[in-house]
Specification:
By secondary structure, the chain is mainly α. The chain has 14 helices and no strands. The longest helix has 36 residues, at 87-122.
Length: 311
């Protein structure tokens, strides 16, 4: 168990190292930089800016310094978007919004996806099953930038139930449309995974034995089938949660949510290297942590995995 956790942590650190390295060199490969502006800058000012931020050094030297600072917990300061402000401070203010949005989105995804998958498995090959799977497939195919405006137009524009832009932590209605837009894709995957996992368990011998003893259908589902049937969904929840938070980049722009997503887009537009690197490493860390948590939940739900990991 401990060996497996240590291996996963090592793999996670390796992934973060590769992710940070690729991000650094890809940003420096952009055809524009943070000091390019529509206004002409005097050469001596440009020279001072380049020297101040270390862009006068060789690329590998810049990479070594950036890696050293990141290891020490220093993400640097924003070069362009919020000039002079520490990236860690910027992320500290914007990340709680993105985290709240992601948590609400995953709550809606679990609330919609898992019951739908269970119902589809119980009603296998019926109209209910076909309808749920058709809607799930539609949710997987439609991207957030299509679903978001449609939901905003219908629920916000026509019905007037929810605001279509802005963010107010004290008003849950302002969170609903962006969270639903984010959560629908995860709900679609969850419903399909839950259905597949439940069907596999429902065909096991111990389920037939429970039925032969006269136990009612939903008691069999809740007591015997649910724990094993949810293993594929649990495996998906970890990375899905992290990808939901990172996927809020588009949704935050659609609904004008003041999270990391909008800052990240501005950082890419302006070539703000440090403000690009910060969210990338933050989201990468979330994915690594979420995958590790998902593995631990799978081991807890399935004793056979626990035995296999231990051996």
């Amino acid at each position: 168990m401990l060996r497996n956790i240590s291996n996963r942590l090592f793999q996670g650190l390796l992934v973060l190292f590769i992710l940070g390295t690729l991000t650094f060199f890809l940003v420096h490969a952009l055809p524009y930089g943070p000091f390019q502006d529509e206004k002409a800058v005097p050469p001596h000012v440009m020279e001072r800016l380049v020297k101040l931020h270390g862009y006068d050094k060789p690329l590998l030297t810049q990479y070594g310094l950036r890696l050293k600072n990141v290891v020490q917990g220093d993400l640097g300061v924003s070069i362009k978007v919020m000039e002079g402000r520490p990236v860690s401070e910027i992320l500290g203010q914007a990340f709680p919004v993105s985290l709240t949005l992601g948590c609400v989105a995953m709550f809606l995804a679990v609330l919609l996806g898992i019951p739908a998958g269970i119902l589809a498995a119980v009603r296998k090959n019926t109209r209910m099953d076909y309808l749920i799977m058709a809607v799930a497939l539609l949710g997987i195919c439609l991207p957030a930038f299509v679903i978001g405006p449609l939901l905003a137009e219908f629920f916000g524009g026509r019905l007037g139930w929810f605001p279509v832009a802005g963010w107010n932590p004290r008003d849950p209605t302002s969170m609903f449309l962006p969270a639903l837009t984010l959560g629908l894709v995860s709900a679609a995957y969850l419903s399909r995974l839950t259905r597949a996992g439940m069907l596999e368990i429902l065909n096991q011998d111990f389920i037939r034995t429970a039925r032969a003893k006269g136990q009612k259908g939903w008691i069999i589902i809740l007591r015997h089938a649910l724990r094993g049937g949810l293993i594929p969904s649990i495996a998906y929840l970890g990375p899905a949660f992290a990808s939901t938070i990172s996927g809020s980049v588009v949704v935050e722009s659609i609904f004008q949510v003041p999270g990391i997503g909008r800052l990240f887009i501005k950082a890419i537009e302006t070539g703000d290297e440090t403000l690009i690197m910060g969210p990338v490493l933050l989201y990468g860390s979330l994915i690594v942590a979420a995958n590790l948590l998902a593995d631990l939940l799978q081991i807890w739900l399935n004793p056979r995995l626990r035995t296999a990991k231990a051996s």
